[in-house]
Amino acid sequence: MRLIAPAVLLASLAACTSKAADDSPGSSGINPNAPGLSFVSPVDGDTVPPGALTLTFQVDNFPLVDPGAHTPENDGYIAVTYTTAGTELTEDTSQPTDNITLADTGSHAISAELFTAEGATLSPDVYASITVTVAPG
Hints:
Blueprint: H1 6-14, E1 21-22, E2 29-30, E3 36-41, E4 47-48, E5 51-60, E6 76-84, E7 87-93, E8 97-102, E9 106-116, E10 127-134
Parallel strand pairs: 4-10
Antiparallel strand pairs: 1-2, 3-5, 5-8, 6-7, 6-9, 9-10
């Protein structure tokens, strides 16, 4: 039995993006019209300087709107979760970019998940995650 180091497993999972499955006959297994979310920048494994960091996302088949907006179905926002200075923070954004601050050096996991405008998770969940390293300044 071969064991996989947690860091290797995390890196492998982090590179994944979420798309809903399509199990209909003749399907490739991925629904091309399903919402999708991935990180464009930074990418998993990047080393970044301490301080402000701009995150850029690719969002497919899911219009972004302000949290709490009264809109038709199938739109919403991105919730970004990360830890800095020992505190876990979650920020909501209706833009394909978000600015966060990573104050302490070392490894930082950053995750993003799509939510409906009313704050509900999608089914199945649509999320992406990366790990970046903050280098000493």
